[in-house]
Amino acid sequence: MLPAFGLSLLFSIALCVHAVRSGQQIYWLMIILMLQPLGGLVYLVAIVLPSMAGSTATRRAVQSARETLDPTREYREAKAATEDSPTVHNQMRLAKAAASLGHHDEAERLYAQAATGIHADDPALLLGRATALIELGRHAEALTLLDQLGHDADKGRSPQAALALGRAYEGLGRMTEADTAYQWAAGRLPGLEGLGRYAAFLAHAGRTTEAREAIMEMDRRINSANPQFKREGRLWRDLAARALG
Predict the structure, then answer these.
(1) Which of 41, 67, 93, 191 is at 20 to 30 A from 84, Cα to Cα?
(2) pLDDT at position 43, please?
(3) H or E stretch at 214
(4) Whole-number Å distance between alpha carbons of 89 and 83
(5) Do 228 and 60 meet the contact criterion of CB atoms below 8 Å apart?
(6) Phi-psi region for residue 157, left (φ > 0), alpha (ψ -120 to 50) or beta?
(7) What is the pLDDT confidence band of residue 1, given thresholds at 50, 70 and 90?
(8) Is the pLDDT of residue 38 over 50?
(9) Domains defined along the chain, listed by start
(10) What Rg, from alpha-carbon coordinates, does the chain have?
């Protein structure tokens, strides 16, 4: 037991030295020392390994670990940046962070503030605000904004916009138009959000056979995917399954 404890202590000390020298937040020292050896392993995955490898998969793993350990970090940093310099970029960053925490009222307000002047027709701002309005159940207002995006890519039409359009139409009971928008988005969006939301729509519309077929297709994709995609995919698969009951 003693040798194992000694190795764990040396491992933790080495990581603490790394944290101090690399200017990490003080909470990392507490995590490393108070949660030995698990805290050290988390630090190794979240901080040390990314400095040694810059792949997309690694960055995603790091981001996921950071969000799990400190879910409000991005919001705090974005808020500080916006207070220091209220640029459109910073307001958009803060709006995204607020939305990720479920603060849709704040996100909608921030997007509205940013979408003024020369940015009034900015597709990213319009879509962000429309999505926040959908989450708030204000579907008619969301649809008005989405109509400003036009019907082609040059005017802001995108799979993400089509998905939001489907959700707005569904919220207004315009099921045929919702079906068209959902189908278009599901066939083009990366990941499984489009297909998951479409399957949920089918379930809500009483088209249970089609909903089950969509869920089976999601299961097939999840089973053959990498671990990162599987975790995200299951979230949308579960959303569809709950709608089906």
Answers:
(1) 67
(2) 73
(3) helix 208-223
(4) 12
(5) yes
(6) beta
(7) very low
(8) yes
(9) 2-69 (no CATH), 72-178 (1.25.40.10), 190-245 (no CATH)
(10) 22
Between CA 91 and CA 80, with CA 128 as vertex, the angle to 5 degrees is: 20
203 burial type by CB count under 10 A (0-12 exposed, 13-18 middle, 19+ buried): buried
Question: How far is it, in rounded angstroms, from Cα 20 to Cα 141?
Answer: 50
Buried b (16+ CB within 10 A) or exposed e, 153-170: eeebbbbbbbbbbbbbbb
- Nearest CA to 205 out of 236, 232, 173, 172 is that of 173
- Model confidence at 62: pLDDT above 60: no
Structure tokens belonging to residue 232: 């995200």
CA separation for the pair 80, 240 (Å, rounded) = 37
pLDDT exceeding 90 applies to what percent of the chain?
A: 59
Question: Which residue reads 């020298």 in tokens?
Answer: 21
Joined together, the tokens standing for residue 21 give 């020298």
What does the chain come to in residues?
Answer: 245
Phi, then psi, of 194 in degrees rounded to 5: -60, -50
Report the pLDDT value the prediction gives residue 34, as an integer from 0 to 100: 79
Please tell me the number of Cα atoms within 13 Å of 159 on its side-chain side. 15
Q: Read off the pLDDT of residues 87-107 as tens digits, 9 standing for 90 and up.
A: 999 999 999 999 999 999 999
